[in-house]
Design goal:
- The protein has helices spanning 13-25, 41-46, 66-76, 82-86, 92-114, 124-144, 155-173, 182-192, 197-200, and strands at residues 5-8, 29-33, 54-56, 62-63, 214-216.
- The protein is an alpha+beta fold.
- A 5-stranded mixed beta sheet has the order 4-3-1-2-5.
- Strand 1 (5-8), helix 1 (13-25) and strand 2 form a beta-alpha-beta unit.
- The chain is globular and about 45 Å long.
């Protein structure tokens, strides 16, 4: 195997944050875009969680957690001071705490707000209100700084903005207004309007055993 391999799904926020980390860290991988409703056998054989993203390293090690892939990307990056800037020692505890909050609490309410029918949950307003509390808390941080923990984005920003984007999409689909305060809206805009966003969301063909290799970033 000549390249590390990333199994991905374009719209999955966990996969988005991993691809963003790879872009920022300037690490190229072979990317395999899969259909979550028709998962290829090769993927199922390699993954215990059966969900994306997963990274298959050149040494055949499998990394299944998106945060672990992000940390791997940081460790592999040749860019100067990447780890110091994106995971500063004096902010580590707070960074991991806010990512945990996003992944285990905000995501729970976001899913039940966005996909109420899928979860057979009729408490849409309850979950919207709960999700909004997290948005308000992050907005308070962003009224003080450009990013969640200062003037530079950390892995907390990388990890959370794809989920705030999903919250925005859900609000728009339900014709809700005034769901993001200016500070968090500007913060999200800084990612969505970044020149790297087009590469991040490039639509690769679905992977199959006989597919040609695709690479990410593609340029």
């Amino acid at each position: 195997m000549t390249n590390d391999i990333l199994y991905s799904f374009r719209r999955c926020p966990y996969a988005i944050r991993v691809r963003w980390a790879l872009l920022i860290c300037e690490i190229k991988v072979e990317i395999r875009e899969i259909d979550l409703k028709n998962k290829p056998l090769d993927f199922l054989n390699k993954s215990e969680t059966k969900t994306v993203p997963i990274l298959i390293r050149k040494n055949s090690e499998v990394i299944e957690e998106s945060l672990e892939i992000i940390l791997w990307a940081l460790s592999e990056s040749k860019k100067k001071n990447m780890k110091v800037i994106c995971l500063p020692d004096n902010k580590k505890e707070d960074i991991f705490k806010i990512i945990y909050e996003n992944d285990n609490e905000f995501k729970y309410h976001l899913d039940r707000f966005k996909y109420a029918q899928r979860y057979h949950d009729n408490n849409v307003e309850f979950h919207f209100t709960k999700a909004t509390k997290f948005i308000e808390g992050w907005n308070k941080l962003l009224t003080k700084n450009k990013y969640l923990f200062g003037d530079n984005p950390t892995i907390a920003d990388w990890s959370i903005w794809p989920f705030v984007r999903q919250f925005k999409i859900a609000c728009e689909s339900q014709k809700r207004t005034n769901y993001l305060e200016p500070s968090i809206k500007n913060w999200l805009d800084s990612f969505e309007k970044d020149r790297k966003f087009e590469s991040l969301m490039y639509k690769f063909e679905l992977w199959g055993p006989n597919s040609r290799k695709n690479y990410f970033p593609s340029n």
